[in-house]
Amino acid sequence: MTASTRTLAIRVAAALAVLTLSACAASPGATDTPAPTTPQHGGTITYGRAAAATSFDLNNEITANNAFAIDQVFEPLVSFDTTGTIIPWLAEKFSVSRDLLTYSFVLRSTLMFSDGTPVTAADAKFSLERHLKVQGPLPLEAPIASITAEDDHVLSITLKSPYTPFLSELSGFSNGIFPKDFGGRSEKEFFAKPIGTGPWVVDSFDPSGDTTFTANQHYWQKGKPYADKLVYKVVADDAQRIQQLQAGQLSGIESVAPATLAQLQGDAGVTVSELGSWTVEQVFFNTLDDHFADRHVRRAIAWALDRDGITKATTFGAAATLRTLIPPTIQYSANVNALDNDLDKAKAELAQSAYPDGFTTTLMIASGNSARAQEAQIIQEALKPLGIQVKIEAIELNSFRERFKAFNYEFMLNSGQSDAPDPNGLITFQADPDGFSNSYWTHYTNPQVTKLMRAGRVTADGPERAKIYAEIQQILADDVPYIPLYNPKNVVASRATVHGLTPRINGSVLFADVWVQQ
What we know:
30% of the residues lie in helices and 22% in strands. It is built from 17 helices and 22 strands. It has helices at residues 5-15, 64-70, 121-134, 166-170, 187-192, 238-246, 261-265, 290-293, 295-304, 307-315, 343-351, 370-383, 397-405, 424-431, 438-441, 447-458, 463-479; strands at 25-28, 44-49, 78-80, 86-88, 91-96, 102-107, 144-149, 154-159, 200-205, 211-215, 229-234, 252-253, 270-275, 279-285, 319-321, 359-366, 388-395, 411-417, 482-488, 490-495, 498-499, 515-516. The strands form 5 sheets. It has an 8-stranded mixed β-sheet.
């Protein structure tokens, strides 16, 4: 028996129900002239971003600077809505066999790539098999036995055994569809000038600067995108992005600094939009470092930090304090017994370590991020009573990424971001010692967590799966390879003449829906 698209969507929606998700909201300033309600075509969207896109190879990238450029060009078979519910995308419908081993996807009949050639099931097969071959930072973890193009429009994927997060996994940007055999070009040539099904086509991109897209004239959503051109303009500094937005040099900006929210919401020329997120702001420990290899040291630091205080001081209401790795916007977020805000227990914990009198260490952060700079200062002060002297090292974002990926840091402030709505994504990326990131570049290993992580992938949604993820979250709270601080909202801002610029739950923006008032 197979489930209809509608039945399956209802089932998936129930399975992926999110907790306390804020609705997408926009707060425009007052204007004298009513804005038009019908989208207008034409114009250019210039979007201020913190870092440049450096590659469009969707199977080999993971950081937001690339992911949220890739997803404008390539699209997956299924996607997710504002609540994380799986929905059809390039596949107009999909079904799952009773034994949960065979997934069938029916492609939209009029799909074309941006060069005007038809999209077929053979293209989807090639794309997913290339991802299986490459693996990359967001590999297809499902036990795929075969991928078959039944005809031009039907793709079947058969698994060796049930894998609960499979549809969620497929919805990520890294499973976008591209032409079979790269359209007759080499991989290097193809990704320098990629062809996809997305609303935008890469016109030019500078790995150290701006990226320019033009509208895909063959996009399957008729009439979209509304704008003619989309420019990703690199403005690394939070304050500079705000200034350029208010001056009208930018149409919109990502990653609005929390401290500027009130200022922007009071500006009649600006619209601020927000939505819940799958992001977790965290302190990460390099457990290869002698100090942070010591579990008691990590636990002492967790006890010393006041997470509520950090959230209140740095996010101005744009985030909710977290004490567990899975945010409430993702299913199976659990209440844990966390180590938090007790200096006496922090001192007692440190006394059990190899460094009872403290030590000197360096906290690495990316420069240009005002919230993280403030977080770092609060952490620096909080650890002084333990005798832990913290030096703060702020470095340029690309260098920051290179450093932590090389394990060339002691501890750092960074965020974890799920790319799909199932808890397996965050758990795998941050707790799998054999994964691409080696537990988010912490080198953390716990055999029980690994065992539970694997069990969570094959256990059907329900109480047993909830129990597995609750246990994982408690172990991580006890071992403290990282300290979750808060779950921020996705907040973007745009000029009041730019409409529809709202965030997705994963932090991206569907620019196909954005239009510029002429």
